[in-house]
Each structure stands twice: as C-alpha cells, then as structure tokens.
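ARCHIVE CARD
SHELF: 3
SLOT: left
DATA:
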Amino acid sequence: MIDLKNLIVIFVIVFVGLGNGCATGPKIKRVESDTTMDISGKWNDTDSRLVAQEMINDCLSRVWVDNFQARNNQQIPSVIVGTVKNRSHEHINVQTFVKNLERSLINSGRVQFVASSGERGQIRLEREDQARHASDETMKGPGQEQGADFMLIGTINTIRDEVKGTAVMYYQVNLELVSLANNIKAWIGEKQIKKVITRSKMGW
C-alpha cells in the first residue's frame, strides 16, 4: 500500500515530466535571405528588394543617362537618394528600402553614387582629423567632394479594402529623379503591388 509521502513524490515526478514536455521552445528553420515569405501580407523585405531593383532598372534604361553624358563629355551622372516618405497605413522601414535603391544604383555601373548628408558629416570629420594627424602625402583635403547631379526622391502609399475576412492591400511606390542644377524632373517611376489577404473567421 502506497503511503502519502510516496504518493506525493510520484505526483511531483509526473508533474515535472509533463511540464518539461510542454515547455518546448519555438521551432526555427533557417532559409535563404532572398526567399519570398508572405506571412502577414504586409510590406516585407521581398517587396523592398524587388521594387527597388525593378524601379532602378527602369530608371537607368531611360534616355536621361545618355542625354547627360552627351552634354558632359561622356561623364557618368552622380546620383544621391533623398527622402522617401512613408505615407502608408503601415510602419515601413524606409531606410531598408533606401539602401536597396542605393545598392541597385551603385551596382548598375551606369551612375556614380554620392554619400548622403549624414554620411558626408562623418567623412568630413575624418578629413578634419587627417588634417591634424595624417602625413601630407596621405591627407585628404577639403574642397574635393563630388557634387550630385540628380536626387532621387519618392513616396510609399497604400489603399486598404476589407470585408468579411478578406482584405486587399494596394501599395503604390512613386520615385522621381530631379536635376539639382535646374529642378527639372529627368525620370518619374511608379510601381504597384496588390495583395489579397484571407483570414479564417476564427483568426479574424
């Protein structure tokens, strides 16, 4: 006959065993960083990367590049990315999208890319430090920066339509390339994305 003390010990062992069985951690699966994964239906890294690539490819295929080179002894234009405003319903990491734009511009070889205002501040501080501490042969002096010829600016907008567990999310990205010399728009691009999001009634 099992006494009360032994019964308590058995109960504790069984309870701890069940607790350990339930306390499993999250399941994690590593995937390639360029894998398309639409989980929530919101703007994600795939949207950012593909929109940037497609819009920059369109931008650099237009005649403004050849026209600029014809006027400037075949020199390739210098471009800087300005502000891309998020006017959507969602919190979008615009900086990630800007970096995707920058990478597509640089890797194209069709343009030179100028550092942003924040990056230039760091570089200028480094030049000031070199002026005090570096040798004359290696020091980089002021007044030699490459000025940008064009600035890329844009907006991200959304329209959401929703009824009875189904939502349609429409994204519209507009980019404009503006000449810094005369404010003339050299290129205007637009890209739309539409997603249909269906949720179960229990989850909605």
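SLOT: right
DATA:
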Amino acid sequence: MSDGAVVLEVRGRVAIVRLDRPDKLNALTPAMTAELAQAVATIDRDPELRVAVVTGAGRAFCAGSDIRTLDDYATPWDFGQRADYGDILRRLRTPTIAAVNGAAVGGGLELAMACDIRIASTTALFGAPEIKLGWIGGSGQSALLARSVGPSNAARMLLTGDPIDAATAAAWGLVTEVVEPEALMDAALALAETIASRAPLAAQMAKVNLHAAASMPLDEAIALERHLQTVTLATADADEGRAAFAERRPPEFRGR
C-alpha cells in the first residue's frame, strides 16, 4: 500500500498501533496522520485499553513525514498549521511504549519521543537529519531530545544530522532497553502487560504528573504531585489496593 495505513490491533488490555507503510520506511502522509488521530481517539474511549504500544512494519520504525507531501502545502504557514502526529500521540491519556524496530529519524524520532517509554531493537537508529535538508524538526524535537540525552548530545545530533545506534541511545538515556529484533515485541508487550496490571487511573495520573513536572519549578511540581496523589487516594482502585494488601491477594483494579 503506497499510501500507507495506521493499523490498530487490540490484545486484551493492550493496544498496538502499527505504522504500515514498509516500502516507504513508514513515512507518514496526512492521511496516515488522520488515521493515527482516529486510533488515539479509539484507545482513549475504551476504558479496557490500558497501554498502547507504537511500532512500525518492516525494517523501520518511522522516517517522519513523507517529504514529497510537503509540496502539497500552499505556504510554509499552511504546513505549520497542519495536524502534527507528535502532538496527537502526546495527547493520549493512556501510557505509551515505543517499540523501535528500525530507523526512527526526523519526525519518526519525534514520534518515538512522544511515547512515555522507548524499547529499541539492536537494529534501531535514531536521528534528526532535517538540518541536512535545510530545516529543523518541529514537534518538540530539540526540547524533548535535550531532556532525554542532555544538551550536548542533543546538540551533536541536531547540528550534524547524523544518527546514533541503539547502544548509544541506551547509553545516553534515550531508550530504556535494547533487545534483539526477534524479541522486541515480546519485550514491549511484557512491559505493557505489567503496566496494564496496575491501577489505570493512577497510571494516567502519573503520566500527567511526569509531563507537567518537566516544565515546572521544583516546588510547584511537588505541590502538583501531592494534589494528584490526593486525587488518586480518593478512587475506588486505591481502596481496592489497600484491601488487597491487607488480605494478601492480587488487586483487581477497575479504573474507578
């Protein structure tokens, strides 16, 4: 399918979002971005879906936007006002895991960084090559990269445009784990199942807290965390967690 697709697969409490345009390294078209938005909305509407795993078909994770579609925008302003796939994925309430199976470059790097956790195959590459084409990334690439790998390493990637391999990405803190290609989805799904077994409202609240704290002064971040802790303590899941602890049994969280 030259136009590509975004495929949503459900496995119990885990949603798998797969970019399916392998012949073009899963480069995203506007139509695929719209499909991604639909997948995100579907996941957030379903209380039974507690984790989303994002991955790519074939040998790449995502090569970013299909450069050939850039000429479809009448002006740079029109391009800047388009629906942005990084923004779409960041709006997902559900915790997300990027299973990076190959090249994650340009917007593909941004898409991976829009996920909460990243696991990489040994074949993965991470790069910000926009400078080689005359522009820079625009979906939080510099800010998110600096937070993940540090300002100096981020500057090296952004100013050279050269990619780093999975081992370097792990050493720099961009990914949490590197596994062999055949073990990637099993590792991502095992982690997803672990997260799915936890209290879903608390997981969503933790995600909100992490995102907010990244841009807040320390005192404000701690105050927000204490407020969110109070909110989660008022849930039925918190009651169930305490009861299960006292009764020495696994909790049955219901997202209430």
